[in-house]
Structure formats: C-alpha cells, structure tokens
Design brief:
With about 525 residues, the protein is mainly α. The protein contains 21 helices and 13 strands. It has helices at about 5-15, 35-50, 65-80, 110-120, 135-145, 160-170, 215-225, 240-250, 280-285, 290-300, 315-320, 335-350, 355-370, 380-390, 400-405, 430-440, 445-455, 455-460, 465-475, 485-490, 495-525, and strands at about 20-25, 50-55, 85-90, 95-100, 125-130, 175-180, 185-190, 195, 205, 230-235, 255-260, 265, 330. The strands form six sheets. The chain has a three-stranded antiparallel sheet with strand order 5-6-9. Strand 10 (about 230-235), helix 8 (about 240-250) and strand 11 (about 255-260) form a beta-alpha-beta unit. Helix 2 (about 35-50) crosses helix 11 (about 315-320), helix 10 packs across helix 12 and helix 12 crosses helix 13 (about 355-370). It starts with a helix and ends with a helix.
C-alpha cells in the first residue's frame, strides 16, 4: 500500500463525523447557473456546520472534455468567493491542489477505480462484459421498435472463468458491469423524502472499455474515500441514487446523506436558454450583476431560507442557511427580483466611502473592458464620482452607470458633420454659437438653471425645440439618451462647450470644403 493511500485512510478515520460536502462538476462546457447554485449550497452547508467544502473535477467523459471548462469552473467560483478548502487551486492556472484526499481530478484516479472494480468482481457483484458496441446498438434498436426501455440482456453475466481468461488473453475489449439485484435500495432524501427505486434498467456499466469509470461508479468511490458526509446535487440525479446505494451496499461501505436540489427554470417556466446566455453563470456577471447579487437571486430558486427578499452578504447567507428549508418545486428566475437585489446592492455600496471608491474602480473596469478609457471625456475620479452621484439611485448595476444608453455618449463621441443637421436647420452654426454663449454665462451650472436658460426664447430668439435638438446632435450621435439638460450637467460646462466648439469647427471646415468642391466643379464645367 502506498504512503499516500495510508495518509488518505488515516484522514478518513480522523474525520468520520465531520461535515464534508463537495462540488463535483464535469468540465464539458461553460459553467451552468445550476452548477453555481449547487456549489453555493454545498459551500453554505459546510461553512454553517464548520465543515469542509471540496472541489472535485469529474473528467471521466473524455469525449466531451474541454480544458477551458475547468477555467470556467475556477473563474465562477473565484469571482463568487466560493473558495474550496480542498481540491484544485482555483487561483492557479496550473494543476496544483490542496488537501489530503487527492488527486481531485478523476482522470488521475484510474488506478483506484480499477482496484474497487476488481473487488466487486471478486465478490461476485460485478462481471466483465465483452459485448461489442454493434451488439449493444442492436439491443437498443430492438427495444425501440418494441417500445421498451433499453436494457442489457445479461449475455456475459454468467461467463465461465475459463472463457473470461481466454478472452482477456486475446486482449478483447470489455467493460465491467454491476450485477443488479432488484429491488434496488430505497432511501430518504433530505428534500424529496422517501424514495423507492422503480428502475427497469439492466446491469449497468461501471468501468468503460477505455479504462475510465462511469459517473455512477466514480462518484461513489470518491465520495467514500474523500469522506463526503452530505451530497447536495441536482434533482436529475435523484432517480440514479438507488443505483449508487446498491454499489455502496456491495462494497460494504456507508453512504452519505443525500439532498437533491430543484431545477432552475426560466422566467416563463421553461428550460434556461443557452442561446440568450441565461443558462450560464458568467453571462450574469458580464451584464454587470455583482456576484453577491447573483448568489442571492439563485437561492430564490431553491429555498433554504425563511426569507429571500433582501440582500445578504455571503457570510450572512452561510449563517442563515437551513438545509431543511430547501424546496421541491422548480424555481424560476425573475428579472424583477434580480434587478431589485442589484439596486439594493448598489445603494448599499454608495452608502459608505469604501463602497463609493469600489464603485468608481468598477466603473473604470467596465470602461476599460470596452476600450473606452482613453477617449472623449477624460476618465478621472472626479468625473466618475460626479456621474455616480447623479445616477446611482436610478441604475440596476454599476455597469449601467457608464455603459447604458443614458451614459454611453460620454465615452463615444465624434463631432457631427453637416449631414446630421440637414433636417433640422440650414444654419446649425447659429444655434450652436447661441448655445455656447448661453452656457458659458450660466451660473450655477445645474440642470434646473441650464433648462431655464435654454428655454428662455426671449433671450435668444430661437425655437427652443430646435435648439435642444441641435445641442443633442452636437453632444451625442446616439439616438437614445437622457434629456439635454441632464447630458449637459453630466458632461459639465467645460466638456459641453468644448464639444459644441469642435462641432462648429467641423461644420465650418465642411462648409469650406463644400465651397472648394463647388468651385472645382464649376471650373471643370467651363
């Protein structure tokens, strides 16, 4: 027995009564929102009970394995502050691990699975199956035609030892199957209560022909060796639990307690859509929703709390979590509830100096993410603080402070050409010069005063509506945005007048160019 196995067994005995939960995702794509919720529930239960939270990568399906999926798992856990006590290091892009029960990648544990599979064969609870994939497909097709549930017919169940050894000597490909005994074990699920198996499945594979274990086998072995006390996982595994308990029984080991989590549905009650991104945890972060907001929203789809209508910190979530309050019925995402939590989060941040500083830093982050941090309006703390002060109580996310329709004009701007004013006036310069004159004399430079000065037609003799439209064209080329007075107040006097002056200059250059082209055209006609 190797030293690492001795350490593992010793650790298992030392922590028999400890709460140990695990999040065991398969790295086959971008991390699903349901995966993040499963990780959160396991983490909260472990922290609540002074236990350990383990990350284990179940990468036994090599045909669907994606290396980038592991990075997606690490990123989503890291940004959500769901930090494992054991498992792959989520702060390191290498394969470093922490903990005494590793390796924590199932692809590195093949020797262990083979050892337990051989044990099951030796006790008569499993057998080698040499049926070809072609024969198995024929069985499936035949069951389909008869409208029956596909099941293995047990052809290799009673092969003699001599026959098995002869086939092995010829290196025939084979799998290892469990010898099912009906009825399968019943069990008490913490969420769904008493469950009796109704499985009509035949002997199922535990070790594939490529040497990798199936999910059903590997998770049982690993949960045992890693001393997992509670398994919190999606309800889709509820019907498979009796099979897992059968493996535990055949190995003579005690199973953990099970709690299956309800489905997460879309707001309309259907499946989450991969097309619009609602199925992925990262899509919510990319839209600007803070991780703690997303965590608070996904518990609204699964329960575990007496009330879920207000924002909690991660520490408060762990403290208030009650496993017995998990719900059975599927939970639906709700945009209104998500936005309400996000607004509460932004307001809470703005209520403290540290929070205000973090908002400004996050605003810088979002501008940099769109490469807008070096254009148009100068990006300085004063500008961002002023913008946040103006709009913080009217936005859903910090991202909306800088990248919404209401504020994008600040960062993306070019002086308008003459064609932009063709439907407004033949002499836009007159309106722009008037606006510059009014605004340069405007004191105090507030929205109310700006609005009053620009609307005072007796002072400038121009049509007010047309003046406002010309000013809007000069300040922003976006069709949507805040009222003109709001735009001016957000930009400030200096930036507003600068844009107006640059607009006038461009219009004059356009006019001179037009004259030159007209003269050239007349000369060529002569």
């Amino acid at each position: 027995m190797t030293r690492s196995r001795v350490v593992m067994i010793f650790c298992c005995r030392m922590c028999t009564n400890a709460v140990r939960t695990r999040f065991a995702p398969s790295p086959t794509g971008i991390m699903h929102l349901g995966g993040l919720r499963t990780a959160l529930y396991n983490y909260m239960f472990a922290v609540k009970n002074n236990g350990k939270f383990i990350l284990r990568i179940e990468d036994t399906d090599q045909s669907r394995f994606e290396a980038k999926a592991i990075e997606s798992i690490k990123y989503n856990l890291r940004i959500s502050s769901i930090i494992p006590d054991e498992g792959p290091d989520i702060f390191d892009h290498s394969e470093t691990e922490k903990g005494s029960f590793g390796p924590y990648n199932q692809s590195q544990r093949l020797e262990i699975y083979h050892e337990y599979a051989e044990k099951l064969i030796s006790t008569g609870n499993a057998y080698r199956c040499f049926c070809s994939s072609h024969r198995l497909n024929v069985l499936k097709h035949d069951a389909f035609l008869k409208k029956q549930i596909p099941r293995y017919d047990g052809r290799c169940r009673e092969l003699s030892e001599e026959d098995v050894n002869a086939r092995l000597s010829r290196n025939e490909k084979h799998t290892i199957r469990m010898k099912l005994q009906h009825p399968l074990p019943s069990f008490e699920d913490i969420v769904f209560g008493f469950n009796t198996s109704v499985s009509e499945e035949g002997d199922f594979v535990i070790l594939k022909s490529d040497g990798f274990p199936t999910y059903h086998f590997a998770n049982v072995i690993d949960d045992h060796l890693m001393r997992i006390s509670h398994v919190l996982r999606g309800v889709e595994w509820l019907t498979s639990t009796s099979k897992h308990l059968f493996i535990y029984k055949c190995l003579g080991i005690n199973p953990p307690k099970f709690a299956h989590l309800p489905l997460i549905n879309s707001e309309s009650g259907g499946k989450l859509s991969k097309r619009d991104g609602s199925a992925y945890a990262s899509s919510f972060f990319e839209k600007g929703y803070a991780p703690i907001v997303v965590l608070n929203h996904i518990i609204q789809t699964g329960g575990g709390f007496e009330h879920t209508d207000h924002l909690r910190s991660l520490e408060e979530l762990c403290q208030d979590f009650d496993l017995n309050r998990l719900t059975r019925h599927p939970g639906c995402l709700n945009q209104g509830k998500l936005d309400a939590l996000s607004r509460e989060h932004v307001r809470k941040l703005w209520s403290s100096e540290d929070g205000k500083n973090s908002i400004v830093e996050e605003m810088k982050h979002w501008l940099a993410s769109e490469h807008l941090d070096t254009v148009a309006t100068p990006i300085d703390v004063a500008t961002l603080s002023k913008l946040a002060e103006e709009r913080v109580h009217n936005v859903r996310t910090v991202r909306d402070l800088v990248l919404s329709d209401e504020t994008i004009f600040l960062w993306t701007w070019t002086p308008p050409g003459r064609h932009r004013f063709m439907r407004l006036t033949s002499n836009p310069n007159r309106y722009i010069d008037t606006a510059i004159d009014i605004l340069s004399k405007c004191e105090p430079f507030t929205k109310c005063e700006i609005q009053a000065r620009l609307k005072d037609r007796s002072a400038h003799g121009l049509k007010t509506g047309k003046l406002f439209r010309v000013i809007r064209e000069c300040l922003s080329f976006h069709k949507s945005g805040p009222p003109v007075a709001d735009m001016i107040a957000i930009l400030g006097k200096d930036q507003t007048i600068q844009r107006l002056r640059e607009s006038v200059n461009v219009l004059r250059e356009d006019r001179e160019l037009y004259k030159q082209l007209k003269q050239t055209h007349q000369l060529s006609d002569e």
